Amino acid sequence: LRGPGGARQTQFGPDSLTRIYAVTSGKGGVGKSTLTANLAVALAARGLAVGIVDADVYGFSIPGILGLVHDGVAVKPTRVDDMILPPVGYDVKVISIGMFVDDNAAVAWRGPMLHRTITQFLSDVYFGDLDVLLLDLPPGTGDVAISVGQLLPHAEVLVVTTPQPAAADVAERSGVVARQTGQKIVGVIENMAGLPQPDGTVLELFGSGGGLEVARRLSEGQDAAVPLLASIPLSVALRSGGDAGAPIVLSDPADPASVAILAIAETL
Ligand code: ADP
């Protein structure tokens, strides 16, 4: 697809039938990639055509979570002429910066280079007709988030946060930046919530209340309230499934974290 001046156009423009969700967070390590990958697998298991653009340039972990890393090396996309065919993990088509850098090299790119890469991911990668495209954004409010906001102003945004009230500030900011580019925030997902203990108590390692707090703040002054979509508990199985490249929504759907993720997938 080429637009005026020969510039490539994304197949994911405002007229496309693909629902686009950008998954964002205030800071790293809150489980954004883990949830994006498991949500994608859950949607694909429902028979939807699903793709992920892993735009988390600093922590490109989607290929590993979806079993597309072997001996530390990510599966490479296939090239046909100037078309890039994305690898497929658990029926999810995936493109990631991690597939283009060698030996787990760090990505130290400035904004224009990042913008070009994201533009190329959205225009030169042959995803075919997708029902759902998920974008795993880097944490925070940097260049990639702004590029995605400009390229896909009609994308809907999912904000991931931990239950720590102190994390609410940064999570709120990432949502606000998305909204400034016109994107709609569909909801907040709280991750790493209480872990049930054998004695019946709940270990709230990361506190509580952060998800509701972010949802409340992002709802202020809006016509429609931003909901807290789910609170996903800490889960050893979710973590080890991510490490092993075996998403738990398939391997362990009864785990409480899977149950919560599958419930979100039903609402998307
Ligand atoms: P982010 O994309 O926000 O940087 P990741 O998805 O890479 O975060 O998750 C960071 C680490 O936390 C990973 O090791 C992941 O397996 C683990 N993790 C994520 N969510 C949970 C959870 N609910 N319970 C236990 N570990 C989790």
Note down, in words, how this protein is organized.
The structure is a single chain. The protein has one domain (about 20-265): Rossmann fold, CATH 3.40.50. Strand 3 and strand 4 form a beta hairpin. The chain contains nine helices and 14 strands. It is about 35% helix and about 20% strand. With about 270 residues, it is α/β, with parallel strands linked by helices. The longest helix is centred in the N-terminal third of the chain and has 14 residues, at about 30-45. The model is unreliable at about 1-5 (pLDDT under 50). Helix 1 (about 30-45) packs across helix 9 and helix 5 packs parallel to helix 6. An eight-stranded mixed β-sheet has the order 7-8-2-9-1-10-11-14, with helices on both faces. It has helices spanning about 30-45, 60-65, 110-125, 145-150, 170-180, 210-220, 235-245, 250, 255-265, and strands at about 20-25, 50-55, 70, 75, 80, 85, 90, 90-95, 130-135, 155-160, 185-195, 195, 200-205, 230-235. Bound molecules: adenosine-5'-diphosphate (ADP). Keywords: ATP-binding, Hydrolase, Iron, Iron-sulfur, Metal-binding, Nucleotide-binding. Binds and transfers iron-sulfur (Fe-S) clusters to target apoproteins. Can hydrolyze ATP. One of its GO terms (molecular function) is ATP binding. Belongs to the Mrp/NBP35 ATP-binding proteins family. This is Iron-sulfur cluster carrier protein.
